[in-house]
């Protein structure tokens, strides 16, 4: 089962409880973050609760598949997926690619599975 989506408190620390003060300060200092939180407060609170309390998470899963139980949940390392938040608080829903003189950056990968898609790879190669 999974995944769910909760705010990470570090960009590159994957262990449970990972925290980086600089990352948190930069997130809290970005106006787009505050606007996104205001727009999605209820969903974010539910995701956080479901991350902390197995019973709520299983109940959400059972809406789609009634068989899972708490005993089916196994602890796993968190994955971190960067998602671009714009200044207006909206989330980017597609790949964003930016180019500099010497590099090409994929800034948003909204679907982990899509990062392995050949059409995306071909597009990135064409940009190079």
Write the layout of secondary structure elements.
Elements: H1 21-28, H2 31-39, H3 41-52, H4 54-62, E1 96-99, E2 104-108, H5 118-127
Antiparallel strand pairs: 1-2
Helix pairs in contact: 3-4
List unreliable stretches of 5+ residues.
none
pLDDT averaged over residues: 88
- C-alpha Rg, in Å? 17 Å
| Series of secondary-structure elements, N-terminal to C-terminal | HHHHEEH
Question: What strand line-up does the widest sheet have?
Answer: 1-2
Main pleated-sheet profile: 2 strands, antiparallel
- Strand composition percent: 5-15%
> Residue share in helices?
25-40%
Characterize the overall form.
globular
Per DSSP, the total helix count is 5
Structural class based on helices, strands and sheet pairing: mainly alpha
What is the number of beta strands? Answer: 2
N- to C-terminal distance: 37 Å
In short:
Helix content is 38%, strand content 7%.
Main attributes of the structure:
128 residues; mainly alpha; two-stranded antiparallel sheet; 2 strands; 38% helix
Explain the overall architecture.
Helices cover 38% and strands 7% of the residues. The chain is mostly helical and 128 residues long. The protein has a two-stranded antiparallel sheet. α3 (41-52) crosses α4. The longest helix has 12 residues, at 41-52. The protein is globular. The mean pLDDT is 88.
């Amino acid at each position: 089962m999974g995944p769910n989506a909760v705010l990470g408190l570090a960009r590159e620390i994957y262990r449970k409880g990972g925290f980086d003060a600089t990352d948190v300060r930069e997130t809290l200092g970005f106006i787009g973050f505050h606007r996104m939180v205001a727009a999605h407060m209820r969903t974010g609170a539910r995701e956080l609760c479901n991350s902390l309390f197995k019973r709520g998470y299983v109940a959400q899963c059972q809406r789609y598949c009634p068989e899972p139980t708490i005993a089916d949940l196994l602890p796993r390392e968190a994955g971190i997926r960067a998602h671009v938040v714009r200044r207006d608080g909206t989330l980017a829903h597609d790949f964003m690619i930016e180019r500099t003189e010497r590099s090409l950056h994929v800034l948003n990968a909204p679907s982990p599975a899509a990062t392995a898609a050949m059409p995306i790879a071909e597009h990135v190669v064409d940009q190079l």
